[in-house]
Design a protein that fits this description.
The complex is a heterodimer of chains A (133) and B (706). By secondary structure, chain A is α+β, with helices and mostly antiparallel strands. Chain A has 1 helix and 6 strands; from the N terminus they run E-E-E-E-E-E-H. Chain B is built from 28 helices and no strands. The chains are: A alpha+beta (133), B mainly alpha (706). At the A-B interface, strand 2 of A face helix 15 of B.
């Protein structure tokens, strides 16, 4: 059954394992069970995967209903090749700790950058003030 | 017609068809049942209601609205308003008297009526269901009622249908323009199943959808065994309205498969029926009556068969056409009769989920035996079937639901002019097809069948939107909706005086004006480019007119480029320069050049050459000048020597009298240092050389200049 050839339609993807990237940066992996015309998704046996560097950790979440507008991209996971990844899986606590450390480091560097710019009399350009094209 | 104002745009077509059905149904009912019987029943019902007057006021008040009125229910303004609201949103309905008639008569005669009256149910809407008519003889479905849980069950039993047919009084005043509270949101997929016409099995009872275990509102008093007919007629059997999974899919399943699944369906049905019957679970949601299902079948077939064509697959035997409802339901009705033999009443009370899983596994096993091993006999097919076997949650999304989503997506693709609406897609596929054709011509490889999406082309329909009007209301109520938004802000354009503006603002405005000019010229350009296609599509008589339009547009474009004042001398290239400073402007010029006449094109070239150093400086960031090279070279090809000579002069800025050499050098230097300038100069020189050497009649003066 070929639904709408030549288009991007999620109907063929149903009941397959998918990786979904959300707008807030979260990565969800789950079986796509149901969709609708807005690309709202129902994910089953969902796992939230946190990546830090070469490590990742999975948090089992259960059933997710994702509003379509929050999806950045999603792709089918090849179950056979799912396990050959160079990344190393760690426990949840460990990955959360790693994530916290990473966030902290990023904040530090941002602060330093802003400080340096301020010293030079410049300001960080914010995206919303760019008027001219 | 309130039908057209339904906010559910995607179901609009279905709704309109339903509207037509409504009229058919009404007539049918009138003929069948007549007015006389109704009145009697009405009076009976009223008497019974009068008895209820003694009951506690609280219980009564809820029925008071619908039941306590002496005269026609529709007379009450508030009820009318409420009803109109429901009509608006639910988009349903027979007129109530008709419904009542349908209810009151006996079963056999009633069934066709019931079927018909229920046909108008629309997808995804709450259905009012007749009260617990279970206690009585085979009441019919039809009437829609709100599933208000607070209705006391015992009172319902005593109430007759007429009392229920009106919208029950809401405790809060009806909010105008807002849809009434509904348990089932608008966006849910249709709950009815479409019976493929070639499949003679009846889908009378619907499958229970396992996931929701809903409390049953009215524990039915009937026994465990019911004939399928009875089952069908049970209105509030709290069968959840979920469409049939596989027996329904009319589009692409095998005939046999569908039938087999239908059999599995039937088997599945009865246990679920009994589960419901024995009061395992109740339902706060009103469920769609199975009758509605069948009636609906005819309706749903049309979109399904519609996009069968979309897939380019050979259509199965076409279902009966929609408008003929009486034959539709009756055929289903007849096919209802043989049902009893197919039913295998199963008294095992499985938990709904277990039952479902069991049947899924059975069905999957059948799948594996049949279709998957055939055409898709490769590893992939096997693997997926194995996985399906292990995956108990597969097919949670029913085939019908998939088709529904697909239908919506296809509807979005409907267009009157695909070249206008979907230009890039059309072009892309044309390119692909050309490639494929070329490949086929060259190689003798296996012809790859690429299925192409055939988008429906609809005639343009003018839908005049009439804002919804409430009858009987004082004054004009403004209802704000998507099609009729309310004006929130009064935005007034105030033109500023020239004095106040600072220099910066002026510069910015000028730049903005240039941008606007570029955009306008671009639209002209797109139109001009499109003329060729239109030319081919148009009739002979229209072609000169088209050509004329095209010419006019080209002139307009040129004017835009060079700045207005067509009749005057154009001393300054300022306007043109402004355009050329902007990246998009340069691209625009490159695209326009092929359309301009030689003189105009030469003019453009000259202007560019004249100001080349300036342009080069400005282009440092964009680096778009090279795009002009190609059209320039085309133009050059057609230029006479004189022009070319002057062009060279411009480029190098050689003054006639050889004075002031310093600025000259600068100009030339800049030109030479830039890739574009260099290439342009080279082109011009080579062209000049060609012309000079080829044409033996060159005048001496020109030669000298050169």
């Amino acid at each position: 059954m070929n639904y709408m050839p030549g288009t991007a339609s999620l109907i063929q993807d149903i009941d397959k394992k998918h990786l979904v990237l959300l707008r807030d940066g979260r990565t969800l992996i789950g079986y796509l069970r149901s969709i609708d015309q807005f690309a709202n998704l129902v994910l089953h046996q969902t796992v939230e995967r946190i990546h830090v560097g070469k490590k990742y950790g999975d948090i089992p979440r259960g059933i997710f209903v994702v509003r379509g507008e929050n999806v950045v991209l999603l792709g089918e996971i090849d179950l056979e090749r799912e396990s050959d990844t160079p990344l190393q899986q760690v426990s949840i606590e460990e990955i959360l700790e790693e994530q916290r450390v990473e966030q902290q480091a990023k904040q530090e560097s941002e602060k330093l950058k802003a400080q340096a710019l301020k010293e030079r009399g410049l300001s960080v350009p914010r995206a919303d003030t760019l008027d001219e094209y | 017609q309130s039908l057209e104002d339904c906010p559910l745009d995607e179901d609009e077509d279905a709704f309109q068809a339903l509207g037509e059905e409504d009229e058919d149904i009404d007539q049918f009912n009138d003929d069948t049942f007549g007015a006389g019987a109704v009145d009697d029943d009405w009076q009976e019902a009223h008497e019974r209601l009068a008895e209820l007057e003694d009951k506690p006021a609280a219980a009564r008040r809820e029925q008071d609205g619908p039941g306590g009125e002496d005269s026609d229910l529709l007379g009450e303004p508030e009820d009318t308003l409420a009803e109109r609201l429901t009509r608006l949103v639910i988009d349903s309905e027979l007129e109530d008297p008709a419904i009542m008639r349908a209810v009151q008569t006996r079963l056999p005669a009633q069934q066709p009526g019931g079927l018909n009256s229920s046909i108008w149910d629309s997808s995804a809407v709450l259905r009012r269901i007749r009260g617990p008519l279970l206690a009585q003889d085979m009441p019919s479905v039809s009437v829609l009622d709100y599933a208000l849980p607070q209705r006391p069950p015992q009172a319902r039993e005593e109430e007759r249908d007429p009392s229920e047919r009106a919208l029950p009084r809401r405790s809060s005043s009806p909010v105008i323009g807002s849809p009434p509270v509904r348990a089932v949101p608008i966006g849910t997929p249709p709950k009815q199943a479409a019976v493929p016409s070639f499949n003679q099995q009846i889908l009378c009872p619907k499958p229970v959808h396992i996931r929701a275990t809903l409390p049953q509102r009215y524990p039915p008093p009937y026994g465990e065994r019911m004939s399928p007919n009875q089952l069908c007629n049970v209105p509030n059997s709290s069968l959840l309205g979920h469409p049939f999974p596989h027996s329904v899919s009319p589009v692409l399943t095998h005939l046999q498969r569908a039938q087999l699944l239908g059999g599995a369906q039937a088997g599945r049905m009865s246990p679920s029926q009994f589960a419901r019957v024995s009061g395992l679970v109740g339902s706060p949601l009103p469920s769609v009556n199975p009758k509605l299902l069948q009636g609906r079948v005819g309706q749903m077939m049309s979109p399904a068969s519609g996009f069968r064509a979309f897939f380019g697959a050979p259509p199965a035997p076409p279902p009966p056409s929609q408008p003929q409802h009486p034959p539709g339901p009756t055929s289903h009705l007849q096919s209802l009769r043989p049902q009893p033999q197919m039913f295998r009443p199963d008294t095992t009370h499985l938990h709904p989920q277990h039952r479902r899983l069991l049947h899924q596994r059975q069905q999957q096993n059948r799948n594996q035996h049949r279709s998957l091993n055939g055409s898709v006999g490769d590893r992939g097919g096997h693997r997926s079937s194995q996985q399906e076997r292990k995956d108990p949650y597969a097919n949670l999304m029913l085939q019908r639901e998939k088709d529904w989503v697909s239908k919506i997506q296809m509807m979005q693709l409907q267009s009157t002019d695909p070249y206008l609406d979907d230009y890039y897609y059309q072009n892309y596929f044309q390119k692909l097809e050309k490639l494929a054709a070329a490949e086929e011509v060259q190689g003798d490889g296996p012809k790859k069948e690429r299925t192409k999406l055939i988008t429906p082309q609809v005639a343009k329909l003018e839908h005049t939107y009439k804002p919804v009007q409430f009858e009987g209301s004082l004054g004009k109520l403004t209802v704000s909706s998507v099609n009729n938004p309310r004006k929130m802000i009064d935005a007034v354009v105030t033109s500023r005086s020239e004095d106040d503006e600072t220099k910066e603002k002026q510069v910015r405005d000028k730049r903005r004006q240039t941008l606007v000019t570029i955009e306008k010229t671009y639209s002209l350009l797109l139109d001009v480019e499109d003329y060729e296609r239109r030319y081919l599509l148009s009739l002979e008589g229209e072609r000169p007119a088209l050509m004329g339009e095209r010419k006019q547009k080209i002139c307009d474009m040129y004017d835009n480029l060079r700045g207005k004042a067509p009749g005057q001398e154009r001393p300054s290239d300022d306007h043109f320069m402004q355009i050329m400073c902007i990246r998009k402007g340069k691209r625009l010029v490159a695209r326009i050049l092929p359309f301009l006449s030689p003189e105009q094109a030469a003019d453009v070239l000259m202007a560019t050459a004249r100001n080349l150093p300036f342009l080069i400086k400005k282009d440092a960031q964009d680096e778009v000048l090279p795009c002009l090279l190609r059209p320039f070279s085309h133009v050059l090809y057609h230029l006479p020597l004189g022009t070319v000579t002057s062009l060279v002069q411009q480029l190098t800025n050689l003054p006639q009298s050889a004075t002031a050499s310093a600025p000259t050098n600068l100009h030339l230097t800049a030109v030479l240092q830039n890739k574009f300038g260099l290439s342009l100069l080279y082109l011009v020189l080579s062209r000049g050389e060609e012309l000079q050497s080829s044409d033996s009649n060159t005048e001496l003066m020109q030669d000298n200049q050169w």
